[in-house]
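Per your request, structure below.
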């Protein structure tokens, strides 16, 4: 089998030489273990943090060891009760073509009619739950709110915007990094308005899109976007801080928003969250999202790139905005 290892800790933007693809033999499964062939691997922005020792401490990827990440696969050999050959499973044993591990490392999945298996890494998986939790629980979005989502054409953002629309937002505004993505937002996804943040200062572009301000901000980007949103938030406005991808390659922490005093004046709440703390909402989310998909009230795209050999390039592409919707590697 083939697996990716971290060969060096990236400084700034990672380069292909920071990674190494190695071949290795897998052991035969022992009692209680299964052999799983991965079919889809997830690449996610959080992986950038795990590549840096200082940022995430003991969670960081170890050098010269297999990297981890979300993966969907099929059981090939099982020596464990509850899992049989052919079963579809989810694990965090990504960045490799196959894995042998205790059955407890895998969650059995039930295929959903009309939805590809890769969706368990996207719309039905961690990014979907992040959008759902962030918008409903963290930002406490209410019907009639005007909602702004950054990183709106990505895995989380595209769902946050659509959930806001379904939950009765007065208007849903989005930002993304290309004209094609802006068109996707206002066309297929039903955003009220959207802008390409690369065409001018975010503060001006947002003020133009939301002349009356916003009630809720779903932040995937941080930096200038967060500062612009603080300006645009109305009194008692709320922001769910999901991510800050604009700074993930920074070697020095960037200065924070310069307009923090606005939080005081406008009684604004900024609240961060980690989706991992909200696993209890997974069943409610799966049911609600499953219903929206079946009724075609939510649509999603995936950017699928082929081959384990391209996993690093796919990850680097994600960080550069090559994806629309969830970015995955098909094995
Ligand atoms: P996406 O599918 O949104 O992919 C990342 C996108 O980020 C790219 O497509 C690119 O789109 C955009 N981007 C890259 N650089 C910049 C920049 N400098 N400024 C603005 N946009 C940029 O990834 P996810 O949906 O998986 O993740 C979105 C965010 O949510 C990330 O910040 C991630 O860390 C966070 N996250 C947090 C979780 C939590 O538990 N808190 C869980 C899951 C994700 P474009 O072309 O528009 O620039």
């Amino acid at each position: 089998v083939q697996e990716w290892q971290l060969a060096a800790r990236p400084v700034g933007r990672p380069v292909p030489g920071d990674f190494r693809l190695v071949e290795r033999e897998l052991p035969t499964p022992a009692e209680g273990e299964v052999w799983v062939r991965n079919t889809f691997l997830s690449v996610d922005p959080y992986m950038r943090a795990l590549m840096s020792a200082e940022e995430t401490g003991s969670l960081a990827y170890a050098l010269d060891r297999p990297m981890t990440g979300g993966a969907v696969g099929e059981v090939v050999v099982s020596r464990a009760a509850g899992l049989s050959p052919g079963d579809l499973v989810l694990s965090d044993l990504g960045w490799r073509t196959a894995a042998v591990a205790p059955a407890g490392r895998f969650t059995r999945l039930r295929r959903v009619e009309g939805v590809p298996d890769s969706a368990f890494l996207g719309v039905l998986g961690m990014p979907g739950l992040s959008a759902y939790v962030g918008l409903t629980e963290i930002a406490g979005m209410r019907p009639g709110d005007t909602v702004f989502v950054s990183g709106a054409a990505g895995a989380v953002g595209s769902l946050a915007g659509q959930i806001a629309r379904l939950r009765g937002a007065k208007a849903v505004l989005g930002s993304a990094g290309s004209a094609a993505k802006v068109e996707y937002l206002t066309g297929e996804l039903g955003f009220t308005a959207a802008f390409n943040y690369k065409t001018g200062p975010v503060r001006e572009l947002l003020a133009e899109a939301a002349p009356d301000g916003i009630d809720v901000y779903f932040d995937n980007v941080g930096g200038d976007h967060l500062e612009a949103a603080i300006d645009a938030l109305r009194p008692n406005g709320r922001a769910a801080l999901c991510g800050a991808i604009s700074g993930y390659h920074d070697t020095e922490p960037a200065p924070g928003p310069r307009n923090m005093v606005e939080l005081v004046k406008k009684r604004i709440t900024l609240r961060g969250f980690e989706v991992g703390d909200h696993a209890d909402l997974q069943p409610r989310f799966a049911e609600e999202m499953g219903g929206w998909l079946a009724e075609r009230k939510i649509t999603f795209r995936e950017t699928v790139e082929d081959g384990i050999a391209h996993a690093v390039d796919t990850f680097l592409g994600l960080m550069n905005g090559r994806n629309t919707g969830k970015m995955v590697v098909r094995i």
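Residues 227 and 257 are 5 Å apart (CA to CA).

Regards,
D.
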